[in-house]
Design a protein that fits this description.
The structure holds two protein chains of two kinds. By secondary structure, chain A is an all-beta fold. Chain A has one helix and 30 strands. By secondary structure, chain B is of the alpha+beta class. Classes of the chains: A mainly beta, B alpha+beta.
Chain lengths: 326, 102
C-alpha cells in the first residue's frame, strides 16, 4: 500500500496552527486541536459565516475580494437617522470601521478594490434625493469626483476605480440608462434593453452581466454587456430584485445571492457563461446586501438589517477538512 | 409525525460559526432572535449545535422568540410618521411574520 511519504515526499508534519497556504492533498497534524487535517477540494459550493459587520444595515455597496473587501453606505431602519456613510474594511476575518463617505446614502453602487474603490449614485433622505455623486477611496479616505449625468438610486454598477459601468436604477420609475466612467467623468452609452431598478451586476467595464431587478415587477432578465451594447442572455431561475451587489469578474462568471421575490430569499445562483444554475442557499436570507469577490470566492455582508457576513467557496475550491475515523 | 427540523438559539460570533464543511453537510437557516434551524435527527446538526453552544428549543419556543423579534420590528415601523414609511424606499416595508416549520 502506498504511504503518504512515498506520494508526497515528506512525512505528515506537525503544526501548532493550520498552515497558511496548504496545497490540495496536503495532510498535517494540528497539535493544538489534536486532529489530523487535509486540504481537500470541495465537491460542491458552500457558504460559511465570516466576521460580522460592526453596523447592521441594508442597501450598502461593496468592493474588493473575499479576504480584502470594503463595505460603504446603507440604511438601518427605522427612521431618517438610519441613513449612513459608514465605511468598513474586511480582512478575511473581521470588519473595521474606517472613514465615512462624504455623502450619506443608501442604494448606491460600488466598484474597485479594498484600497482603490469607487462609490456612485444612491439615495438620501430627508429630503428624498437621488444622488449623482461619485466618490473615490484611496485606502484611507473618500474624495468627491465628477457626478453621474443622471442621479439615481438602486443603480447597478461594477468595474474598477478608473473604469466602471453604471446602469439602470430609479429616477423614480425605472431607467435603462447606462454610463461609462473613465476615471474622471461619466459618458452616456447604450441603454439596457430592459429598463429596471434594483438591478445588480458583476464584471468589468467592457464585460458586465446585469441581472434581476424590478420593471417594476420583479424580473429574471439577464443582459450581457460587451463594451458597446447589451444583449439578453438566459434568465435567472428565480426572478428577484435587490440581489447582493456585484459578485463576479466578467460577463461569463457571476453569483446571484439572496434578494426579494416578494419575500426575502436565501436563493443563490451561479452563472456559468451560458445559464444560471441553482447552488446552495445562504444560511441567512437577506436582501439589499453588500457583496464582493468572485463567483468562486464570494462575500456577502449585511442586508435586511443583519450584521452577518457569509463567504462563498465554489465547487472545486480547496477547504481544510478534519480527518475522522468514525 | 417525525420532525424535519430542530431549532436552537445561538449567537453568530462570525468566522467559524458555520464552516464550509458543515454547510455542505447540512442546511442552515438563520432566523430573527438568533434562532437557527437545522435538520432533526441528524448527527452533523447535533454536532454543530454542540459546537456553537446552542440552546435547543421546541418549535413553539423558537416560534415565540422569532415572533417577539418580528413584533418589535413591526412596532418600530408602525411608530414611524407616514412620511418616513414611504419616502419611495422599497426597503422600508413593514417586517412580515415568519412561521417556523416542524
Amino acid at each position: 500500500m502506498a504511504e503518504y511519504k512515498g506520494i508526497h515526499g515528506t512525512k505528515v508534519q506537525d503544526y501548532t496552527t493550520d498552515p497558511d497556504n496548504p496545497i490540495t492533498g496536503q495532510v498535517w497534524y494540528n497539535e493544538t486541536a489534536n486532529t489530523l487535517k487535509v486540504e481537500a477540494a470541495t465537491g460542491a459550493g458552500a457558504w460559511a459565516t465570516g466576521g460580522n459587520l460592526t453596523t447592521g444595515r441594508q442597501g450598502l455597496a461593496g468592493a474588493g475580494s473575499q479576504t480584502a473587501a470594503l463595505g460603504f453606505g446603507g440604511y438601518t431602519p427605522p427612521g431618517p437617522s438610519g441613513y449612513t456613510g459608514k465605511t468598513e474594511s474586511y480582512n478575511g476575518t473581521s470588519w473595521t470601521e474606517v472613514n465615512d463617505l462624504n455623502q450619506i446614502r443608501v442604494f448606491l453602487a460600488g466598484a474597485g478594490t479594498q484600497t482603490a474603490a469607487l462609490a456612485f449614485g444612491g439615495f438620501s433622505h430627508p429630503p428624498s434625493t437621488n444622488r449623482a455623486e461619485t466618490e473615490s477611496w484611496n485606502g484611507s479616505s473618500w474624495t468627491e469626483l465628477a457626478d453621474l449625468n443622471a442621479g439615481r438610486r438602486e443603480i447597478g454598477g461594477n468595474g474598477t476605480q478608473t473604469a466602471a459601468l453604471a446602469y439602470g436604477g430609479a429616477p423614480p420609475g425605472t431607467t435603462a440608462q447606462t454610463e461609462s466612467w473613465n476615471g474622471s467623468s461619466w459618458t452616456e452609452v447604450n441603454d439596457l434593453n430592459t429598463a429596471r431598478t434594483s438591478v445588480v451586476g458583476s464584471g468589468i467595464q467592457t464585460a458586465t452581466l446585469a441581472y434581476g431587478g424590478a420593471t417594476p415587477t420583479v424580473t429574471a432578465v439577464t443582459e450581457s454587456w460587451n463594451g458597446t451594447s447589451w444583449t439578453e442572455v438566459n434568465d435567472l431561475n428565480t426572478a428577484r430584485r435587490d440581489i447582493a451587489s456585484s459578485i463576479g469578474t466578467s460577463n461569463t462568471s457571476a453569483l446571484a445571492a439572496g434578494g426579494t421575490t416578494g419575500s426575502i430569499t436565501a436563493v443563490t445562483e451561479e452563472y456559468n457563461g451560458t445559464s444560471w444554475v441553482e447552488v446552495a442557499d445562504l444560511a441567512t436570507a437577506r436582501t439589499n446586501s453588500g457583496a464582493a469577490g468572485t463567483a468562486s470566492a464570494g462575500l456577502v455582508f449585511g442586508g435586511s438589517n443583519t450584521t452577518a457576513t457569509e463567504e462563498w467557496t465554489g465547487a472545486g475550491a480547496p477547504v481544510i477538512r478534519t480527518i475522522t475515523t468514525d | 409525525m417525525a420532525k424535519t427540523y430542530q431549532y436552537c438559539v445561538a449567537t453568530n460570533w462570525g468566522k467559524g460559526f458555520i464552516d464550509h464543511v458543515e454547510s455542505q453537510r447540512i442546511t442552515f437557516k438563520g432566523l430573527p432572535g438568533d434562532v437557527w434551524q437545522v435538520p432533526a435527527y441528524n448527527k452533523h446538526g447535533n454536532l454543530w449545535i454542540a459546537k456553537v453552544g446552542g440552546v435547543v428549543k421546541t418549535v413553539a419556543e423558537a416560534q415565540a422568540i422569532v415572533d417577539a423579534e418580528v413584533q418589535t420590528a413591526q412596532a418600530a415601523w408602525d411608530a414611524l410618521p407616514d412620511a418616513e414609511k414611504a419616502p419611495a424606499l422599497e426597503m422600508n416595508t413593514r417586517p412580515t411574520d415568519i412561521t417556523l416549520e416542524e
